[in-house]
Write a structure and sequence with these properties.
With 274 residues, the chain is of the alpha+beta class. It is 41% helix and 10% strand. It contains seven helices and four strands. The strands form two sheets. A two-stranded antiparallel sheet has the order 1-2. A two-stranded antiparallel sheet has the order 3-4. 8% of the residues are buried.
Length: 274
């Protein structure tokens, strides 16, 4: 059984320790009893790490890095659980039912599928079966981000009597005049960069997987143009803050690139509210 004293103090050593535990289950083919023992061992590791995180020494470890290190142990734990369930089914038992973790949000779209029997004749007497109930299970699904092309057509009209008159609706205003992005796409780039902390070069890699080739410099230009349009909103927020009698601030640290040194440094994100 793992105890808290067995855990390394350094965060990199802690991550290496977690990876070592994960590699031990890389080719797991364990029986149910061995899987139970492995699950208990991994759960003891997670419990000890959490005590280490929230104990008196918690200020020495970055919580985000700790969560990152725990991912490998928790992944190994899921692998051990899957091995145990497979061993139970192979032995002729029923697959364990998952505990109810609460209802999924009501606002999400529901796509229903009915899994019905092939024949509705009684296997005993051959009579017609009638429904007496049903089991309903909800699972969380995802539709990956997909791109689409908005095509704007602006018909031109002319008069047969006076050929000089041509009438056409004005083109809608754009953040990037002559560019390809819609306002929704630019907003998505901004949220992904600043709220989800995904750098622009990684966003270009995500888009490339769907066949959309965009340069990092192009996304950077979109972000800069959007920032220019958002200046009035920024000024308005600052104006409201200056009118307030009290301000509350929160400072959050985050690793940022340190050009020229080949590594990262600690940056600070300051949020202010009334």
């Amino acid at each position: 059984m793992l105890v808290e004293a067995d855990l390394p103090e350094d965060i990199e050593a802690l991550r290496a320790f977690a990876l070592e535990q994960s590699r031990k289950l890389a080719d797991v083919t364990v029986a149910k009893g061995e899987a139970d023992a492995e699950i208990e061992r991994l759960q003891s590791i997670i419990a000890a790490v959490m005590r280490h995180r929230f104990g008196r020494k918690s200020e020495q470890l970055d919580p985000d890095q700790l969560e990152f290190g725990l991912e490998d142990v928790e992944t190994a734990l899921g692998q051990a659980r899957a091995a145990r369930e497979a061993a139970i089914v192979k032995a002729g038992g029923a697959r364990p039912r998952k505990a109810n973790r609460g209802a999924l949000p009501a606002h999400l779209e529901r796509i229903e599928q009915v899994v019905d029997v092939e024949a509705k004749a009684c296997p005993c007497c051959g009579g017609t079966l009638h429904q007496i109930g049903e089991d309903v299970a909800e699972r969380l699904d995802v539709v990956p981000t997909s791109f689409r092309v908005l095509v704007t057509r602006r018909p031109r009209y002319g008069c047969r009597s006076c050929e000089g008159a041509v009438v056409q609706a004005p083109a809608p205003a754009r953040i990037v005049e002559g560019g390809i992005p819609t306002e929704a796409l630019i907003a998505h780039v901004l949220v992904t960069k600043y709220a989800d902390h995904v750098p622009l070069y990684r966003q270009t890699q995500i888009y490339a997987r769907q066949g959309v080739q965009l340069d990092r410099s192009t996304l950077a230009d979109w972000v800069g143009r959007a920032a220019w349009y958002l200046r009035s909103l920024r000024d308005r927020i600052l104006e409201e803050l200056r009118r307030s009698q009290r301000l509350f601030a929160d400072k959050t640290t985050a690793p940022v690139l340190d050009p020229g040194r080949g590594r990262t440094k600690t940056g600070q994100l300051l949020s202010v509210g009334v």
